[in-house]
Every structure is written in C-alpha cells, then in structure tokens.
Amino acid sequence: MSQTVTGVIARAKGAEVEQVDVVIPDPGPNDVVVKIEACGVCHTDLAYRDGDIEDAFPFLLGHEAAGRVEQVGSEVTHVAEGDFVVLNWRAVCGECRACRRGEPQYCFATFNASQKMTLTDGTELTPALGIGSFAEKTLVHEGQCTKVNPDEDPAAAGLLGCGVMAGLGAAVNTAEVRRGESVAVFGLGGVGMAALAGAELNNASTIIAVDIDARKLDRAREFGATHTIDSSDLSEQEVIDAVREITDGFGADVTIDAVGIMPTWRQAFYSRDHAGRMVMVGVPNLTDKIEVPAIDFYSRGGSLRPAWYGDCLPERDFPAFVDLHLQGRFPLDKFVSERIGLDEVEQAFETMKAGDVLRSVVVL
C-alpha cells in the first residue's frame, strides 16, 4: 500500500521551496523504500530549484542521503530491510558500452526507480538526480543503495552521495595523485575541500589551496593544505605565478578546478607542470566556452580531464571511505557544518550562497 510522507519540493523556477505531502508508491520488483536519516544540502539542489538543470518541475529535492532500507520489491537481492545505506545516482547497468569495456564509472544507463512519487493530487514529481531525499522516505532502485558500516553518522555518510565524493574522487580516481606529488586546488567549497583531503590521503607532499575567501583558506589546513593562496586581490597571472613559486618554478603535478568558471579553469591549466594533469570537477554553466591558444594546448603534455562524480564506483568507494573515516584516516565528519530540520532547506540555500558552510545537513 502507498504511504504519504513529508517532503520538500521546488514547484516552479526560482520559487522558494515548499514542504508538502509526498505519496510513496509500493516498490516495483527492483525498487526499495528508504527511510531517510540525513541529507546534505548540495548546490545541485539549488540548481534544480532555479531551473538550471532541466525544466521538469515540480522537483522533489535532495540527493546526498543516508538511511535505512524499509521495504523491498519482490526481486530485490542487492539490499535487505534494515540495511544502512548511502544513496547514489550511479547505479551501473553492467550492460551498456561503457560497462562492457570495463569502464562502469562512465555508465550510460544508470538505474532509477520504476515509478514516480507524486503529490497527493497525483502530480508526478521529478526526483533530484533520480533520488529525491529531502523527505522522510524515498523510492529508489536497489542499485542506488550502497551498504556501508552502520556505525557511521548518517549526516556524514550521506555526503559521500555527491559533493564529497566528487572532490575526493577528482584527486584519488581521476587525477590519481601519487605519493610525493604537488597538487593545487582552486575553489574551497565542499568539493574543493574534499579534493584537498583526497590529495592528503594519497600522500601528496605539497598541497596548495586557492580561494578568494580568507575563512575558507583558514580551514583548508584542516583538510590537508600545506600552502594557501588568497586570490581575492590577485590577477590570474599572479595566481599562476604564486603556484609556480611554491613548486620551484615548475608548476603543480596536479591541478584541480573545483569551481567550473573560466578564470579558475585558466589558472588550473597554466599553473600545472609541463606534463602535469589537470582535472575539472566544478560544474560549468551552459554558456561558458573554453578558449586558450591552440599552441598553449599543443605545447604541454600531461592530460586534461573532467571528473564526473569523481569517477567513482559507489560499491567500491563508499564503504572504503566510510571505513577510513571510522579509522580516523579521512575527515568526513568535518564536512558537516550544521544540522537542520526539513523546514530549513530554503534558509540553507541562502547560507550556502553566502559561503558560510561546507554542508548544511537535514537530519530527520
């Protein structure tokens, strides 16, 4: 039998979010109902609210979530009732061309629930990133549930579902930072801080944090930064020169653009070593263009790579990083800046835009 829970939706472009009744249908054969315990407030949720991703309103927001499996469909084998899980939006299919060639991190056909959650009047909701977890419960495909150690704090665990994994994976999976290398990270939101922590986890020797916000630079050392650059009053070239000065004039072995705007992209591009690796994990807008002289591209070796979800495989990465946190080897809990109620999501968007938090986390 379907059930009705409280959730937060974006009904129209740019309108303030609303707390409403959401109808959760019975799970299909491969679906599960998850009782949400915590869900991070991510910039992607704000992008959905503002119509910057698609126009399929109304959206059921929320996607950085952890909770307990409450009900399973008739053919579910991946999880069982009572399992503690982190939700993910890369439930790999195992059959598409990327999966068949052994690159499931690029899966083109990830799974979602077989039916829609709705408002009480029958209006279908579009769940953010196929999850929709600003709600007491949500309906997802079993492959969107990744079991992790139940000793973990749900508020911390859920953040692996998007932003933290994006930055962490950009350093660990995409850039493949190696012991003794130098790394420069541009932009110190949650994604950038996670990239710093990933560089430290992989034993980089020089980790440079770059941002315009002195508060974030102060915190960067908590996440592994060995050097900081306040770029608020510097030109692009001065930022590049500062990175090169720290790295003996050569540039960093790895640079990570965690913002996705063209000034930080150019800084990352030009401040890497001759054969350095650059990763873009910040999400650009729909109109920006990458423009550099062709000779500048041609005359450098190394690689330029985007990082989509930090090139992660949830079944491999989520349990491992939860365990590392519980062992005191990865600072996952430090990303939780504040714990809020479901009725405070709109306020959390304003706090996020002001740069006052790494993550506000809704705790249910």
TrEMBL record:
One GO cellular component from the entry? cytosol
- The reply on keyword Oxidoreductase is yes
What this protein needs as a cofactor is:
Zn(2+)
Supply the Gene3D superfamilies for this chain: Medium-chain alcohol dehydrogenases, catalytic domain (3.90.180.10), NAD(P)-binding Rossmann-like Domain (3.40.50.720)
Q: Which GO terms describe its biological process?
A: formaldehyde catabolic process
**Entry's Gene Ontology molecular function annotations:** S-(hydroxymethyl)glutathione dehydrogenase [NAD(P)+] activity; zinc ion binding
**Keyword set, alphabetical order:** Metal-binding, NAD, Oxidoreductase, Zinc
Which Pfam families does the annotation name? ADH_N, ADH_zinc_N
Ranges for domain Enoyl reductase (ER): 14-364
Q: InterPro entries, alphabetically?
A: ADH-like_C, ADH-like_N, ADH_Zn_CS, ER, GroES-like_sf, MycoS_dep_FDH, NAD(P)-bd_dom_sf
The family classification in the record reads: Belongs to the zinc-containing alcohol dehydrogenase family.
NCBIfam families attached to this UniProt entry: mycoS_dep_FDH
- According to UniProt, the name of this protein is Alcohol dehydrogenase
Protein source organism: Corynebacterium frankenforstense DSM 45800
